[in-house]
Amino acid sequence: MRENRPRAWYKRLGIMIPPERVESINFETKVIGVYLEMDGRGFHRLRRSDFVLMWPIGLPDRSGKQIYDGDILDGSWLNPMTNELVKKLYEVSYERGRYLAKLIGHHPYGTTLLYFENERAEVIGNIYEDHSLIAEKGAGQ
Predict the structure, then answer these.
(1) Residue 18 pLDDT level (bands cut at 50, 70, 90)
(2) Residue 67: partners with Cβ closer than 8 Å, 6 or more residues away
(3) Backbone dihedral angles phi then psi of residue 131, each to the nearest 5 degrees
(4) How does DSSP classify residue 6?
(5) Dihedral over alpha carbons 133, 69, 21, 17 (to 10 degrees)
(6) pLDDT top residue among 96 and 108
(7) What is the pLDDT, as a whole number, of residue 114?
(8) Cα 28 to the chain's mean position, in Å?
(9) Side by side, which strands form the sheet with 89-95?
């Protein structure tokens, strides 16, 4: 079943709220309702500005896991000519009305990939919880 609700990065505590715990989003009053154990209560209505919403892109990765805006994908593949593993990490983002998978690190043909094969890619983290994945790849690799 496709998940249409976003997950939410709660900036104040540095934690990810999964989609099933995001109860409501009111863009008019700028409030988000979430289930979060805090202050002895489970349900809270909090300021929308304290969250970064990450929406599902509507495609699963190779294991069937939903891909979200802000996810880091491992798109590595085995080169049949050299039998070497070609390591590629992508960051999923929403820009100019479409989802993109941007290659992390240096790439001779540019940094943005407009299409990626989701059946070969696997979600291995996200940009908020897994900074080390991005730093590991580095800008000069």
Answers:
(1) very high
(2) 56, 57, 59, 60, 61, 73, 92, 118, 121, 123
(3) -55, -35
(4) P
(5) 30
(6) 96
(7) 46
(8) 25
(9) 112-113, 98-103, 89-95, 71-74, 122-126
pLDDT at 30: 95
71 to 18, 22, 55, 60, 104: CA distances (angstroms)? 13, 18, 10, 12, 12
| Residue among 109, 113, 67, 68 nearest 90 (CA) | 113
d(CA 43, CA 1): 25
30-79 pLDDT, tens digit each:
999 999 988 888 999 999 999 999 999 888 888 889 999 999 999 888 88
**Residues 62-65: contacts with CB under 8 Å, at least 24 apart:** 62/118, 62/119, 62/120, 62/121, 62/122, 63/122, 63/123, 65/122, 65/123
- Measured at the CA of 70, the angle between CA 69 and CA 72, to 5 degrees, comes to 115
Q: What is the distance between the alpha carbons of residues 41 and 43, in angstroms, rounded to a whole number?
A: 6
Q: What is the largest CA-CA distance in the chain?
A: 59
